[in-house]
Amino acid sequence: MTVPSFPRSDPASPEFWEMRYRAAFTPWDAGAVPAPLRDFVAAHPPAGPILVPGCGSGHDVRFLAEAGFDVLGIDFSRAALDAAAPVVGPFAARLRHADFFAPGLEGPWALVYERAFLCSLPRRRWVEWARRVAGILAPGGLLAGFFFFGDGERGPPYPLLGQEELDGLLAGAFERTADLPVEESVPVFAQRERWQVWARRT
Ligand SMILES: C[S@@+](CC[C@H](N)C(=O)[O-])C[C@H]1O[C@@H](n2cnc3c(N)ncnc32)[C@H](O)[C@@H]1O
């Protein structure tokens, strides 16, 4: 794939993502619903609302809405939401232009679904991310999804350097209840992501 060149910008800003969605350069986007998400909601149907932070083109939002769940996908890039509009079709009300760190998403949520969101955030925001997820989940609520591990290359995607790093972010407020290899990934994540579920301590 040819990598276009973009003006320098901060991945913590909407502009960074805006430029990439407008250029249709989205190598993180599988354009499909991953099997581990389907399996997870079939086995553990969330009993309350689901938040999808950084929902991008919205395939997972559509799937969850169609499956009958109370889901909200948020993204701070309008271009991402423009890409999501035709994907979610009749479920447009399940998308919102919002910053994950801004007030207004307090929930409480039964499930926060993670897919290529943490690894899109510069590491300086990770502690804040962990606090925010813990703060908006109901007690007993779940953080579930894909976590990207790697060697510390320049991001995004910013890899977790090991399980200890993720434990350090989450273990204070959560207990890990699942940890599985991921069979199918887009090339940028291949063999380097795991499906994990973390339960918010009550
Ligand atoms: C790597 S993309 C992943 C998109 C989607 N989850 C996927 O797997 O295709 C990261 C997304 O998070 C969004 N994002 C980054 N920081 C955000 C924030 N603070 N609030 C809301 N969205 C954010 C970006 O605009 C982008 O759409």
Provide structural commentary:
The chain has helices at 14-22, 35-43, 59-66, 78-88, 126-136, 163-170; strands at residues 50-53, 71-75, 95-97, 109-114, 137-148, 174-181, 193-200. The protein has 202 residues and is an alpha/beta fold. A 7-stranded mixed beta sheet has the order 3-2-1-4-5-7-6. Helix 1 (14-22) crosses helix 4. The protein is globular and about 45 Å long. The termini are far apart. The relative contact order is 0.15. Residues 17, 28-29, 53-57, 74-77, 80, 99-101, 115-117, 120-121 line the site of S-adenosylmethionine (SAM).
Summarize the structure.
It is built from 6 helices and 7 strands. It has helices at residues 14-22, 35-43, 59-66, 78-88, 126-136, 163-170; strands at residues 50-53, 71-75, 95-97, 109-114, 137-148, 174-181, 193-200. Helix 1 crosses helix 4.
Core attributes:
202 residues, alpha/beta, Rossmann fold, 6 helices, binds S-adenosylmethionine
Bound molecules: S-adenosylmethionine
E-strand count: 7
Q: Profile the largest sheet.
A: 7 strands, mixed
Which term fits the overall shape?
A: globular
Please write out the topology.
Elements: H1 14-22, H2 35-43, E1 50-53, H3 59-66, E2 71-75, H4 78-88, E3 95-97, E4 109-114, H5 126-136, E5 137-148, H6 163-170, E6 174-181, E7 193-200
Parallel strand pairs: 1-2, 1-4, 2-3, 4-5
Antiparallel strand pairs: 5-7, 6-7
The structure holds S-adenosylmethionine (SAM).
Residues 17, 28-29, 53-57, 74-77, 80, 99-101, 115-117, 120-121 line the site of S-adenosylmethionine.
